[in-house]
Predict the 3D structure of the following.
Amino acid sequence: MSNIHLLDYHTTNMIAAGEVVETPVSVVKELVENSIDAGSSRIEVYIERGGKAVTGVSDNGNGMSRDDLLLAFKKHSTSKIKEIDDLRTLSTLGFRGEALPSIASVARIQVRTKEKEALTGCTMTIEAGEESEVKEIGCSDGTNIVVKDLFFNTPARLKFMKSDSAYHAQISDLVSKIALSHPDKVFILRTDKKTIIQTPGNNRLLDVIASIWGTGITKHLTKIEFKSNDINVEGFISSPSYYRTNRKSQVLFVNNRLVKSEALTNAIEGCYKTLLPIRRFPIFVLGITLSPDKVDVNIHPAKTEVRFTNEDVVHQVLAEAVAGDLNKATTNDFNSVFQVKDTSFKDKPKIDKVKEVNKTEEKRETFEQLPSNIWKSQNIKKSADIPKKELIKAPETPVYKAEDHNDYVIIGQLDNSYILCESKGDLFLFDQHAAHERIIYNRMMEKAKNGSGGERQQLLIPVQLDLTNSESQVLINNIDTLLDFGFTIEHFGNNSFLLREVPQEINIGHEELVFREILDMLSKGGSIDGDTMYHQACVIMACKRAVKAGQKLSFAEMKNIINLIPKEENGVTCPHGRPTVISFSNEFIARKFLR
């Protein structure tokens, strides 16, 4: 008796659905791509309960005949290719013929479609892969597909589904990015009768970016138009002064196909390597166009991964395109910071200028920004009031007694990042940023314990925030927690908001940056309680207020850190867990010198 069985058609479709249809987001992606391939100029998406209850996609494309509709939900039936060689010249987004039968096997579907030249259209319903009879109806040109009760016949899949809001945010992000890769088409996303996204479809990428991410972002973008080795690169990149704490605002497409490529992303981010702070990411919307026979899209059923016949060339061209146009962006940054009107420096390397700008910006964050109670508790004058000779770097031979520094004698700075001290013959290196960060964090947490946390400062000029749809949803879901923490936020229309009040610990000019980091934190952790948020937000703000690595400190500023940090609770680490100090014993140093 044979142990090998031939699986029936229904079972094979259910198995295939596991690869093609993982979530409601997969359903939206497959249906929208079919609408694009059908030559549509207008595509509407409607979802309920994050797509789990209802996902509808309608378009004004070519539509299907009765015969086409009968074949559309059969396994491996497609209008995109006829034989394997067609993959070499593929210009459509779909080609496998797996999406519709896979979706139909795990949902209830209703289809209405009509060819443009036809007098009437036709309709059909499918439930768990079982098709009804095709009927003739009157309907508009194009195709409308409604998917209901996704995974209703696979309880195990339903058990592991995420929340409605999670899928809502993912679908919003997906439709936004597909719209950016096809600026010539109108995309509309609605949920519960509310319009979330609507793009102009005027084939102007910058207008599409403005409609999705807000008009505020457009002034920070630089246009790219580059061609080399028969490879075109077009789109927009952000200036080094405008960045995000995550990669959600990065869109990359190849031959109008939205793709995910770590190698291509690294090539772009590598151009920003010395221009952005650590763990900060540029914004970009870039399209790469090359001959279809030089790119392989048949890698994975999701069709988001691609390979190139010569990847090194593509990476090099992309890097050249971004690096070249970064010169424009960095020049604008330099001029805006220093208000330079003379452009004679344009012939000089621009990247070096940006390094100078970053250092200057860091130096502007003086030690005077320590919380006022730190200064008062130590009765120390601000650096502006300290005699000039005292601001000179510490002499090589310490002239201060050990007891004046809590048994630490300050020697000086190493690489403008570490404070060198000697105590009882041992050598101590304090990380100035980590130590100062711990001091500021502890002061903010002390205020919370004393009931004085959440104090806010009103902004003379409100900060306008242009958010993505997913970011807006996160903000709305956590509005009470943000208010309790000290943020007063006003809706300004669509996905725009105004910051009118912020926690008083935030430095002037850092309001948007700190708020976006907190919003990013909330998007990763979902809804969190006030205490947890206060702790994590204080970590972010302490990091922003602390002196920076590479920042030269006066002797009084070094002294203030060294006086305070040994007394701090958990003073041996910063709020992120990095050490604030390391030591070398006299015996260890003696051994190194073979004594």
Remarks:
- The radius of gyration is 30 Å.
- The longest helix spans residues 311-338.
- The longest strand covers residues 456-466.
- The CA atoms of residues 16 and 102 lie 6 Å apart.
